[in-house]
């Protein structure tokens, strides 16, 4: 599989790519940033002939899968040459060192260490840790990135995971429950409700504007939310170049609840067969106890009842031995997913499986809603950060070229 | 190099030990790898003597979690799988009477995990590394 790996040695606990920067929490208790442009320039100075590929891989993933890219990649010869150059260049990967004090800019000291999760959303940074959640507003201009004031504590319950959509943030507080924060307020900071929406939450996923709450790694409940389209100006700011702005506000969380049994009503297995599950916005992924790894798409019935379709897509690709192990975490990736096992990280993509890392890692992140970094996978290891960029597959290219045709074909097949 | 469990001998009464703290381990049947599957009971994938070794690893340095009132154990940086469902941690509840035998079972951290002090201590003492610390604390192990 065509993925280009850039490794940056660093003593970090977690990392996140946002607004052209790599945000990292270092073990010395500092939150630091490294400009991806600096990574690009340094690599170009070593490999000047591959400037174009490096630009695509590090700075502009959107140029690999937007409609303009489709026009070029539709030229078969052009695609072959580009893919070959990408593969040749990606063969061995790159390790590039940056001095912690001279190249990594310190944004702030992290008041409570260590951290459980980091999330960048709507030009803010959120850090989850044992004492709760801290938030900092980012200030950008052309030459400067800094925090607009110190980190503010917005939530004081131990939080293990954060997810965000449409101005709402879900804070998973393990046995303490699930809490929601909103940016749709006139205050400078995120307002977190004191109400818990679930008894337990290890993590959450989004399906459109609804929340999928994982009470166990193998069990979820589906929370349907009420939304409203806002005409007034948003009280918060998205990153103009990396996030798609939304004018929809989630006004009520968990208007309806569906148990996993209800969602799986038409699927030919039940929750006791599931070993691990996660979701993307359109589908649920299940690792079953019989060694299969399957995808099932969401469907909405006439009366708006949430359920999964009955058709199962097998993603095991003949790797039952690998997928029968218990995953530690999993994240969705365009037309695929990235699975973290105890001792390796695998990419399931293009009807195949590729090993991204072959040793234990701290965290795996993808950015499917980002404009420029949607093909990047940021893996934090104990010895540094590995940035992987995946070249579009044949299937993806055909979807880019003729999205309507693919939809028509899918409709006909269904 | 792959971890090897040291040999241990079973006593006449079915227990193993004693450890240096004079504790005896008794492998209960419903957690054994050959027992009937029950949804509420996890099963070891280790032999009895190996279970005792896992217990001794926790007992001698006294890896107690006050919150759960039990000892937790982890072997070789979590590289050894202890339970049939891929569990890499084990819990040993502290007996109500000091002279009672100990028993234990493999656990997944999504259901039960040590309070924060124990993983912190493990990391300080080099028993676990940061990736394991994060996995234990966030219920991913």
Walkthrough of the structure:
The complex is a heterodimer of chains A (414) and B (141). Chain A is 18% helix and 43% strand. The relative contact order of chain A is 0.14. With 414 residues, chain A is α+β, with helices and mostly antiparallel strands. A five-stranded mixed sheet of chain A has the order 5-1-31-30-29. In chain A, strands 7, 8, 9, 10 and 11 form a five-stranded antiparallel sheet that branches. In chain A, strands 20, 21, 22, 23 and 24 form a five-stranded antiparallel sheet that branches. Chain B has a four-stranded antiparallel sheet, covered by helices on one side. By secondary structure, chain B is α+β, with helices and mostly antiparallel strands. Chain B is globular. The interface between A and B is medium-sized, with 26 and 22 residues.
> Helix count of chain B, per DSSP?
3
Helix content of chain A: 10-25%
Report helical residue fraction of chain B.
Answer: 10-25%
Number of strands of chain B: 4
β content of chain A, as a range? 35-45%
Q: Using DSSP, what is the number of strands of chain A?
A: 31
Shape of chain A: globular
**CA radius of gyration of chain B:** 14 Å
Largest β-sheet summary of chain B: 4 strands, antiparallel
Tell me the span between the first and last alpha carbons of chain B. Answer: 23 Å
Question: How do the strands line up in the largest sheet of chain B?
Answer: 1-2-3-4
Beta-strand proportion of chain B:
5-15%
């Amino acid at each position: 599989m065509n993925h280009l790996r850039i490794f940056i040695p660093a003593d970090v606990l977690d990392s996140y790519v946002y607004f052209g920067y790599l945000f990292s929490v270092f073990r010395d208790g500092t939150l630091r940033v490294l400009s991806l442009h600096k990574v690009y320039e340094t690599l170009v100075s070593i490999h000047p002939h591959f400037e174009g590929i490096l630009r695509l891989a590090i700075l502009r993933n959107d140029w690999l899968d937007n409609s303009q890219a489709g026009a070029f990649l539709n030229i078969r010869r052009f695609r072959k040459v580009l893919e070959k150059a990408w593969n040749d260049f990606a063969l061995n990967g790159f390790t590039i060192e940056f001095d912690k004090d001279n190249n990594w800019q310190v944004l702030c000291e992290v008041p409570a260490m260590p951290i459980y999760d980091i999330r960048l959303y709507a030009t803010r940074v959120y850090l989850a840790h044992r004492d709760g959640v801290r938030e900092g507003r980012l200030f950008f201009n052309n030459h400067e990135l800094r925090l607009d004031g110190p980190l503010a504590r917005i939530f004081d319950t131990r939080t293990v995971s954060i997810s965000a959509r449409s101005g709402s943030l879900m804070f998973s507080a393990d046995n303490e429950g699930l809490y929601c924060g909103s940016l749709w307020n006139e205050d400078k900071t995120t307002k977190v409700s004191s109400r818990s929406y679930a008894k337990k939450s290890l993590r959450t996923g989004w399906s459109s504007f609804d929340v999928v709450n994982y009470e166990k790694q193998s069990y979820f409940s589906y929370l349907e939310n009420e939304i409203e389209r806002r005409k007034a100006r948003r009280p918060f700011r998205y990153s103009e170049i990396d996030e798609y702005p939304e004018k929809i506000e989630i006004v009520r969380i968990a208007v309806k609840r569906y148990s996993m049994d209800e969602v799986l009503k038409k699927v030919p297995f039940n929750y006791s067969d599931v070993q691990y599950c996660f979701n993307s916005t359109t589908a649920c992924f299940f690792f079953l106890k019989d060694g299969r790894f399957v995808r099932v798409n969401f469907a909405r019935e006439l009366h708006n009842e949430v359920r999964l379709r009955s058709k199962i897509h097998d993603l095991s690709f003949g790797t039952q031995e690998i997928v029968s192990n218990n995953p530690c975490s999993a994240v969705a990736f365009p037309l695929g997913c990235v699975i973290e096992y105890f001792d390796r990280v695998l990419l399931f993509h293009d009807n195949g499986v590729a090993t991204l890392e072959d040793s234990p890692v701290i965290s795996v992140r993808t950015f499917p809603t980002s404009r420029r970094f949607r093909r990047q996978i940021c893996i934090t290891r104990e010895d540094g950060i590995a940035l992987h960029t995946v070249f579009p597959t044949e299937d993806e290219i055909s979807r880019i070229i003729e999205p309507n045709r693919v939809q028509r074909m899918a409709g006909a097949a269904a | 190099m792959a971890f090897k469990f040291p040999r241990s001998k079973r006593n006449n009464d079915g227990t193993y030990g004693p450890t240096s703290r004079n504790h005896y381990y008794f492998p209960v049947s419903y957690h054994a790898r050959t027992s009937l599957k029950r949804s509420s009971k996890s099963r070891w994938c280790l032999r009895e003597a190996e279970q005792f070794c896992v217990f001794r690893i926790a007992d001698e340095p006294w890896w107690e979690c006050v919150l759960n009132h039990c000892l937790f154990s982890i072997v070789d940086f979590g590289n050894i799988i202890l339970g049939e469902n891929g569990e890499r941690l084990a819990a040993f509840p502290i007996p109500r009477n000091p002279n009672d035998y100990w028993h234990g079972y493999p656990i997944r951290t999504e259901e039960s995990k040590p309070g924060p002090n124990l993983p912190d201590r493990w990391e300080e003492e080099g028993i676990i590394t940061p990736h394991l610390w994060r996995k234990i604390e966030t219920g991913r192990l």
